[in-house]
Amino acid sequence: MPSTMPRFKTDFDKFVVLANLERRGWESVDDYDDSWDIYWASVGTVKNVFGADSGTRLQHGQLISHFPNHYELTRKDLMVKNIKRFQKQVRREGKPHGLTAEDLDIIPATYVLPQDYALFVEEYRRAPNSTWIMKPSSKSQGKGIFLINKLSQIKKWSSNSSMPPALRNSSESYVVSRYVDNPLLIGGKKFDLRLYVVVTSYRPLTVYMSRLGFGRFCSAKYTTEEGELDNEFVHLTNVAIQKHAPGFDAAKGMKWSIHSLRHFMTTRHGAEASNELFHNMQNLIIRALLAVQPAMINDKHCFELYGYDILIDQSLKPWLLEVNASPSLSASDTSDWTLKFALLEDVLDIVDLESKREPGKIDLHMGGFDLIWDGGPVMRFDKPTSLPTMLGAYNERDRNQLRPKEDGPSHLPTQRPKRAAVSVPTSGATSGTEGGPPQAPPGAGGAAFAASLF
Question: How many Å apart are CA 3 and CA 220, to the nearest integer?
């Protein structure tokens, strides 16, 4: 008798992905078999699937893990273009969803090179002492990023030219952004946040946000000294960079769960300020998606998991740094594995390939994810309430999972499958929500809490 279990295909050799798919009893198909129900694919594969010459026609019910032109959000240059376009539209035509142009002030001043080079030079000369950060438009993990505070640091790539040939002749563009040089510090160190969002449709826009996430810390104390502009361990939080820092402790990993961060922010700044900050981060996520919505190809066969990178400044304003179409699913330790396994398990519940949801029912909570936009705001979008967002709140994912009642609570594996070994940390900061960093007792000082990490 033929199996009725879903069939999957993946080009991701990541244990988090494979373990999730196999644990459900789903069947794997080989590389040349197109009878899959779900394809967890790389962005390169998706480009080929939806390419004009591919000849591929997806069948009813097939799902693939990226939208055809996800790059409208996940390429830094296109994200900037779309946010600026939407901001101009709001300023010119009115207030969609009650938004003003000021509400879309979610990215630092940014220019795309080479085409905006003259505009950048004009802006630079208005504030010649500013620091700027340059990033390749389509690279990740901190590759190719550097800071500048003099135009000559760009011009030195070329002689006798007002525009570097590395920019003028390259097929890859760069973005140059005003560096946020007043970041909020914890333990004297810069950090940013990795937050997770799932979009199942762009028309209507349907968005789920995970309560999971983590802060990524630099290993060296923050300084604005000119001699340290080239020090990646001071300025760039990417784990791929920080793991090479002198004295890097793999057990600590320089990560902190979003739940612990919210606890710390409440302890240090008070509940009202903390709630407003997390509410503003949720709004930032939605506003970036609204900005790219007109440009996105909405395909009923698609869903996507995004990794948002957000920086908080000293005034507790969140800034969007970038959005990743393929957020890292590699696990550095047991807690990281637990977080990412839970994340993928919840994403698969959201897409509901086995049709376990009641027909017509809208689930506001799916595992560790909350539905925050469904053609319009689901939770309060215009004004913070006592708890305006569940980001970083207590994670009730066991209660909100899609599973038969007789299955009982979900027990996530605390290590990778037997096919690979895992190093189990004994202490330190973690990206998980269980077994994480020491929790501050009621009334404990924020400084003491932060000091326990470093």
Answer: 54
Q: What is the pLDDT of residues 10-69, one digit of tens each?
A: 988 778 899 999 999 999 998 788 899 999 999 988 888 887 666 678 889 999 999 999
Task: Please name the residues in contact with 21: beta carbons below 8 A apart, sequence gap of 6 or more.
Answer: 8, 10, 28, 38, 40, 348
- The Cα–Cα gap between 332 and 216 comes to 13
Give the neighbor-by-neighbor strand order of the sheet with 146-148.
Answer: 110-113, 174-178, 132-136, 146-148
Among 178, 206, 237, the domain boundary falls at: 178
Domain shared by 256 and 121, yes or no:
no
- Element at 20 (helix H, strand E): helix 15-23
Same domain, 53 and 143: no
| Same domain assignment for residues 137 and 221 | no
**Residue 126 structural domain:** 109-178
Of the chain, the end-to-end C-alpha distance in Å amounts to 58
Measure the CA–CA gap between 338 and 433, rounded to whole angstroms: 9
- Tokens coding 259: 């739940």
> Is 48 within a domain?
yes
Q: Please, is 398 exposed, middle or buried when counting C-beta atoms within 10 Å of its C-beta (0-12, 13-18, 19+)?
A: middle
Contact criterion met (CB below 8 Å) for 419 and 15: yes
Flag whether pLDDT at 409 surpasses 70: no
The per-residue pLDDT for range 372-386, each reduced to its tens digit, is 999 999 864 444 445
C-alpha 401 chain-centroid distance? 22
Residue 7 confidence (pLDDT): 95
Instruction: Let me know the angle formed at the C-alpha of 278 by 275 and 280, rounded to the nearest 5 degrees.
Output: 105
pTM of the model: 0.84
Share of the chain above pLDDT 70, in %: 77
pLDDT tops 50 at residue 425 = no
pLDDT at 435 over 70: no
Domain assignment present for 206 = yes
